[in-house]
Amino acid sequence: MQKIDIETVPGGATPPPIRVGEASIDHAAIAREMQYHPADSAGDARGRAARALVVRELLRQRAGQLGLAVEEDADIEAAIAALLERELDVPEPGEEDCRRFHGAHPERFSEPTRLRVRHVLLAAAPDDAERRDGGYRRGQALLEQLREAPQRFTELAQRHSDCPSKEQGGELGWLVPGQTVPELDRALRHLPVGLHGRPLASRYGWHLVCIDERQEGRALPYDEVAERVRHSLRERATRRALRHYLLALEAEVGVEGIALDDDAAGSLMQ
Question: Which InterPro entries match (predicted)?
């Protein structure tokens, strides 16, 4: 289906309201909904908000057709839940499907690698070139001191770090992927145990990093994660069933001003 950009239209004119059957969704309603749909741009957030409201209105109208109460917000949520329970056909995954999915996606059902990390943060904003250059040179000087006297890490962290962890001598404890900023996270996963030989950059500045211990992740056997596997397959099946259901409602009721995409069920699953 073709998507319609609802942020701008030729000539700068205000786009018409979105219509779902005989109901309209105005721009004020979309603006209020945007806070629940963070995105990289206002246009993306607006599009996600508009689609979420279209989905809600489609379900509200269908619930009304079936005689389910839809007068107040609380009633609408209950009616939608009752509607989906009644009309959505989600097959239960079988044991063979679960075992096959587990075998095909071992990374999804594994214990992550854990790192016990200390660091010193030398703060510098990304757009402050002078401070970042100075911070890098300062970091190199501190690393030279640490190479000569590794036992001074706690002391130097307490004296020089701009991170609250300085109070614990730079201790960050055990970290797993995703627990720190992405740029530092990517670097840490490839480092061996010990003091890293150069400052590592992040949006916050430069990090002097020492990995004290590393515990490699391991794939978990099926019997330990069977319920997680079943839940993942059930969620995938629910998304697929919701998508087909919503696209069928769109065709039946009629939607103007925007088209539901293949991930129409996304906002509802959230």
Answer: PPIase_dom_sf (IPR046357), PPIase_PpiC (IPR000297), PrsA_foldase (IPR050245), Trigger_fact/SurA_dom_sf (IPR027304)
